[in-house]
Amino acid sequence: MRIDELLKGATKRLISVSETAQLDAQLLLAHVLEVSTAYFYTWPDKMVESAEIGGFDGLLERREQGEPVAYLLGHQAFWSLDLEVSPCTLIPRADTERLVEVALSVFEAKKAHRVLDLGTGTGAIALALAAEWPNSRLVGVDLIDDAVALAQRNASRNQLNNAMFVQSRWFDALNTNQLFDLIVSNPPYIDPCDEHLSQGDVRFEPKTALVADNHGMADIEHIIQQAPKYMMPNAYLMFEHGYDQALPVQQRLRQAGFVSVESFQDLGGNDRVTIGQYK
Known about the structure:
By secondary structure, the protein is of the alpha/beta class. It has 2 domains: 3-66, Ubiquitin-associated (UBA) domain (Helicase, Ruva Protein, domain 3), CATH 1.10.8; 78-278, 3-Layer(aba) Sandwich (Rossmann fold). 38% of the residues lie in helices and 20% in strands. The chain is built from 11 helices and 9 strands. It has helices spanning 3-14, 21-33, 38-42, 50-64, 69-73, 97-107, 124-132, 145-157, 213-216, 218-226, 246-255; strands spanning 75-78, 81-84, 114-118, 137-142, 163-167, 180-185, 231-240, 258-265, 271-278. The strands form 2 sheets. The chain has a 7-stranded mixed β-sheet with strand order 5-4-3-6-7-9-8, with helices on both faces. Helix 1 crosses helix 2 (21-33), helix 1 packs parallel to helix 4 and helix 2 runs antiparallel to helix 4. The chain starts with a helix and ends with a strand. Substrate binds at residues 186-189. Residues 110-251 form the Methyltransferase domain.
């Protein structure tokens, strides 16, 4: 079958399950054929072998069941990086790049920093900052051993040697003599009763990386309470959080003595990142 015919049929199959059906079909076929998506615009009339069609159809069936494209491909672009992904942790999303942007804008005048990434997952945030700040030292922690191993592989995959990853429940494996200029986190922040947990790609992602008690605020509150023990004077704490959580996050930071508290919007115009400075 011709490439353009194959993609047309695949797009129709995915329309009911994906808002990006055409792109999904292109990415999956490019993966099977081991080409870039640009190839399809140059050679739309190329014939695809039956064995390759069979592999493509298997991926389409899994996508029709809602399995995320990133898990099917095994990797995901984030910032300037290409990251291996796995069902053991969350898929990096474009909204999280906003946290990287905020960190870079706050610290752009400094030469070197010690940075801690709490709940690092794939290592996306830590590695993006490591790439931008080659003279800095990044530490990423995660509760899940498989996620720590994944982040380490992503450091090697992207040839970044200024980031290390350790297994820890938040600060538990760290010493209070390890002080950081910046602590960043994309922690679980979804209410356990949120209806979106049963919709879309998040159905396939680990709930432990998504859900927190107290209306999604429990882990954020814990981090705010413990963070000052690990922060240099004038250091910053930065969170990604839910679209409706900016005000409570600001309140918790101020109650804990943080100053210069501010929130930043994501690409959709929602408050997505909140920061505070430790005095």
